[in-house]
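R.M. (postdoc): so does anyone remember the format we settled on? I'll just put the structure tokens first.
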């Protein structure tokens, strides 16, 4: 669906009211529901093309686009600058030398989501895969224990979030070494299903770009790295680890304190140029990682390379003097024009079949007859169980053709964009409207997405997304949601 208001005549006031009501509902739902909302710069003065609609005005003045919004500001309200830190793109937003990253104990980070697969990122080129252990917000229940960890297990240890691996990059040139997230210039762009960091450093004589997407065919991420400039002896290093309960900052993840219990050390097994990284904290979970390239070397590194912000931690260490807390590293030579991939897949070696059977019984065949009943169940099972099974085989397949997997993910989000485009004279409004409309994919209700938990809980305030799905012609997914509600109404 494409709406262009730049040169078009609006034929009816009714259409205008429907348009504004839809967008306002989406904005308010997005603002209230997700604490990871992004701030976009906006000119408060409205273009004359737009009616000075009071509800629209309120969203502009106080909502996620405003300088008064609490999201993503480094400073408290009384010390903020005149403009929000993010500038609008057509379907997202951008910032230069931002400070946020996914391993900080803060809401100033961003999510890339496809189904039950959530990649946490930020302004710096660092990524962390997470899933939710459960949430009291939608009822007292567990998300499906594909990782072998229930809500009770996680909450008693101070979190409801499970970390399924994090990646951090560094660059070496001769005797010099520097974290990529500390480069002189980092231009960050966020779009639906995509984040990009353009990094350059004159002292290192290196310029490169990193793009990351959630994998569509398996759980995990695909990270594409393009080298624009590099010294003759330059190398790229990727560190991967932090599988366990999500407890940031790093000191909470790894060290015993009076009120906290650390995650056990990760177990790392190398095989044929990739690593399997697991944790006793997540007994069923399996994660895999590799960095493509020629003459790739790999081994163990100290886990404290993820202690972001600690200036004493450098990507230099003695391989013969590493304690039990380790992560994996991969290193490859780089040169201008080359392209590499950092790949991660997570999953499980099995699942609780008894709980799966109990979940199946909750979908009433009397309330939702066939063939719809079985179809809805298959969607839910694929999302919360099926896609996570046989992760090693899926990872090996990904290693053989990462460019193909990237194209599949890219095509998915292009198709979403083709369904929903808002074009007005207000760039900030366009950015927010296109962003929220396309990323409704992130926050769908059950059966197939992150809110579709074990107890089939439905919550009305998320259903504002239905307006967008209907406008986008996404009737299959809308039907699956309604089928879920129909089949579980008795509960």
């Amino acid at each position: 669906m494409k709406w262009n208001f730049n040169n078009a005549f609006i034929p009816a006031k009714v259409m205008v009211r429907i348009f504004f009501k839809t967008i306002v509902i989406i904005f308010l739902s997005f603002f209230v529901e997700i604490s990871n909302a992004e701030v976009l710069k906006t000119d408060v003065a409205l273009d004359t093309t737009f009616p000075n609609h009071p509800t629209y005005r309120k969203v502009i003045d106080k909502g996620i686009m405003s300088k008064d919004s609490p999201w993503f500001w480094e400073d408290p309200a009384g010390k903020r600058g005149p403009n929000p830190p993010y500038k609008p793109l057509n379907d997202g937003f951008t910032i230069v030398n931002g400070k946020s990253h996914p391993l900080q104990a803060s809401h100033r980070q961003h999510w890339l989501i496809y189904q039950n697969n959530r990649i946490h990122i930020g302004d710096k080129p660092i990524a962390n895969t997470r899933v939710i252990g459960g949430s009291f917000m939608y009822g007292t229940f567990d998300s499906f224990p594909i990782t072998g960890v229930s809500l009770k297990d996680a909450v008693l240890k101070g979190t409801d979030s499970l970390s399924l691996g994090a990646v951090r990059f560094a660059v070496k040139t001769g005797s010099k070494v520097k974290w990529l997230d500390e480069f002189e210039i980092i231009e960050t762009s966020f779009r639906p299903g995509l984040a990009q960091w353009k990094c350059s450093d004159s002292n290192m004589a290196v310029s490169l770009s990193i793009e990351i997407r959630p994998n569509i065919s398996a759980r995990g991420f695909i990270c594409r790295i393009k080298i624009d400039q590099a010294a003759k002896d330059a190398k790229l290093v990727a560190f991967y680890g932090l599988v366990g309960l999500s407890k940031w900052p790093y000191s909470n993840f790894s060290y015993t304190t009076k009120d906290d219990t650390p995650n056990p050390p990760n177990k790392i097994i190398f095989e044929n140029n990739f690593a399997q990284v697991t944790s006793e904290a997540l007994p069923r979970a399996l994660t895999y990682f590799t960095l493509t390239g020629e003459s790739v070397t790999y081994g163990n590194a100290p886990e404290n390379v993820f202690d972001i912000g600690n200036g004493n931690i450098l990507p230099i260490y003695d391989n013969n003097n590493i304690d039990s807390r380790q992560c994996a590293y991969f290193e490859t030579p780089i040169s201008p024009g080359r392209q590499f991939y950092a790949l991660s897949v997570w999953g499980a070696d099995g699942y609780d079949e008894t709980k799966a059977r109990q979940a199946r019984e909750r979908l009433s065949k009397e309330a939702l007859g066939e063939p719809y009943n079985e179809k809805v169940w298959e969607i839910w099972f694929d999302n919360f169980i099926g896609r996570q099974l046989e992760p090693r085989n899926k990872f090996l397949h990904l290693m053989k053709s990462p460019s193909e997997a990237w194209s599949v993910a890219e095509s998915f989000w292009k198709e979403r964009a083709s369904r929903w485009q808002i074009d007005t004279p207000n760039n900030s409004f366009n950015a927010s409207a296109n962003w929220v409309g396309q990323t409704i994919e992130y926050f769908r209700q059950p059966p197939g997405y992150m809110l579709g938990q074990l107890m089939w809980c439905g919550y009305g305030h998320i259903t504002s997304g239905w307006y967008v799905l209907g406008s986008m012609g996404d009737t299959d997914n809308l039907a699956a949601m309604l089928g879920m509600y129909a089949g579980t109404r008795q509960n």
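R.M.: ...and that's the designed sequence above, right after the tokens. Also worth knowing: The longest strand covers residues 161-173. The two ends are 36 Å apart (CA to CA).
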